[in-house]
Amino acid sequence: MTNSARIITASLDDTFPLSRLPAELLAESENLHPARRQQWRAGRALLAEALFAFSGQEMLPEMQISARGKPSFTDPSLPHFSLSHSVNSLQLVLCAAGETGGDVEQIRPRARYLDVARQAFSETEFCWLTEQENPLNAFWQLWCLREAWLKQQAGSVWQMERIRLDPAAGQFSPESATDSKLWWAAGETVMSAMALPACVTTCEEYIFDARNGSIIPQLIPRIPRRWSCYSLA
């Protein structure tokens, strides 16, 4: 399925089974602050459940960290992935076609967000943002798209200037050459974004469901959201 990606959403309030996580990973997480430990374990448990559902992996496969800090599986036949969380929202993107990046943001007030936008975004983006009926939602759209692309490129939030967006035209201009498209979707409370290889044309969506008390949680297909794309300028 090289022309498709999968996105799985969950809540940090869900009960995540840890039985598919290797003992050494669980031991490693014991050194983390409790809140960070919950996020860390939830993300990897969600990744493990997805790999079991789609690839039949009984345990979370071995991973490696690149020189720039981007995690991946050591087995090249397994998909690329990106994990993100915001407040209690958790998102996983899987893509067999190539490197991916994802970001999820709960749409929430942010102190002095216009000042942040003026510093982090281009003049074109800032002017577009201030002209929108809901500037806060527009801010989170631009922020989320940047985060997704930077994660795909193994960048950091401190490198926002590496990409420029033209929301009116639905285009983006990266600092370096890339073969990507940016996807975004907005809900009532959550903004999601993905940076995917340009060959990807569809996205399957799932919800992690462990609410029914089942010993085996499920990935439930959901009706796809309305995704919009940014292409290279």
UniProtKB/TrEMBL annotation:
Return the InterPro entries for the record.
4-PPantetheinyl_Trfase_dom (IPR008278), 4-PPantetheinyl_Trfase_dom_sf (IPR037143)
Mind telling me which Pfam families this protein's record contains? ACPS
Which branch of life, at top level? Bacteria
Where the record annotates domain 4'-phosphopantetheinyl transferase, the positions are 101-154
Name any one GO molecular function: holo-[acyl-carrier-protein] synthase activity
Identify the keywords attached in UniProt to this record, alphabetized: Transferase
Coiled-coil stretches? none
Q: Does the keyword Transferase apply?
A: yes
Q: What is this protein called?
A: 4'-phosphopantetheinyl transferase superfamily protein
**Annotated organism of origin:** Rahnella contaminans
